[in-house]
């Protein structure tokens, strides 16, 4: 541990953007700002992890939240993050990284039933459970389903003695009775101990607010469909009995949280990802002053989140909240499709913009149309990138935690790379 710290203590607390080769010897270019977001546009397989995410996690000393689809970032950087003194959490419902159960985070922890904004925060969670309805001709059913979920959440907080979960919400909408308290496993079978109290919230969703019985049935069906992602026991488990505290995220505690969902589940479980990301951003938005160290929020495969209002707010309005959001996109069309009316504002609010070379003729044409003369006439090579940093435009050589000497011996072995590639030599 001591040798690891001695090799990395002399690195600045910043983000390595790349290498300048304008001088005789290569010079690292660091972004040490405390404010301003970052965006990287690079095609799939271009090396965003090798050049961006992993170098950031090996050097950034502040708290970090990381979307890590393959568990690659965790495998390579968790040891280093612990050496920095961080508490490392792993939201890994499908146990991609080892057999040990990962951490848990209940989104309903965002809600304080005694606060004035009780119902407002219930609405935040309910909305995160829904698909975006901006493209629907008639949003009535989604709006009513959201209202129903809010009503059920509020009622569960009122009548339950334990912390409700989204599985409780799903069961209540389905009409099943909810166990108020789990059975005590220490009691012998057949004992006369009282059984858990069962409650029902059916009276909440049979009120006039939800119209006639026929309309109400359709609203309930819509709500159940949107909450179908809770069908997996693995998902239910990771949303219960939190081991991650939202108050710590708000306070900017020295911790690193890896959210690990395998690529084949990024689409089917996009709502789970949206829930965690949305709730964590909501926790950060509660800050009333910036913490000592900004929180780095690394959002790989940002398009898989879909249009997320909390992310849009973070990128456009939360610059001074002590959060630096770094989003990764495959091309400009992904941003335009996800945020058709706000994509230019989102890009322009990123103080650092990073572009890798495009691979297909259409994406090359789109990139050149957007960047104009800033893009070299011969395009970018596989080891080059174009950086907008504080109004300046420059072509840099990409960083590589595998090859750059400053990372020698710092990273743990990468299970997705052949050992011979991890030489630590540039």
Structure, explained:
It is a single chain. With 426 residues, the chain is of the alpha/beta class. It has two domains: 2-105 and 242-421, P-loop containing nucleotide triphosphate hydrolases (Rossmann fold, 3-Layer(aba) Sandwich); 107-231. The chain contains 14 helices and 13 strands. The chain has a nine-stranded mixed sheet with strand order 5-8-4-9-10-3-11-12-13, with helices on both faces. A two-stranded antiparallel ribbon has the order 1-2. A hairpin with a 2-residue loop joins strand 12 and strand 13. Helix 2 (48-59) runs parallel beside helix 3, helix 4 (118-128) packs across helix 5 (140-159) and helix 10 runs parallel beside helix 11 (309-317). The chain is globular. It starts with a helix and ends in a 29-residue tail after the last strand.
Characteristic terms for this protein:
disordered C terminus; 9-stranded mixed sheet; disordered N terminus; 426 residues; alpha/beta; globular; 2 domains; Rossmann fold; two-stranded antiparallel ribbon; 14 helices
Q: Supply Rg.
A: 24 Å
Structural class of the secondary structure composition?
alpha/beta
Query: How many separate domains make up the residues?
Result: 2
CATH topology of the largest domain: Rossmann fold
SSE ordering = HEEEHEHEHHHEEHHHEHEHEHHEHEE
Helix residue percentage = 25-40%
Q: Report the mean per-residue pLDDT as an integer.
A: 85
Major sheet, described briefly?
9 strands, mixed
CATH class of the largest domain: Alpha Beta
What are the segments in which pLDDT stays under 50 over at least 5 consecutive residues? 1-7, 183-187, 420-426
> What percent of residues are in strands?
15-25%
- Which CATH architecture of the largest domain? 3-Layer(aba) Sandwich
Number of beta-strand segments: 13
Q: Judging from the principal axes of the Cα atoms, what is the shape?
A: globular
**CATH homologous superfamily caption of the largest domain:** P-loop containing nucleotide triphosphate hydrolases
Q: How far from one another are the termini?
A: 24 Å
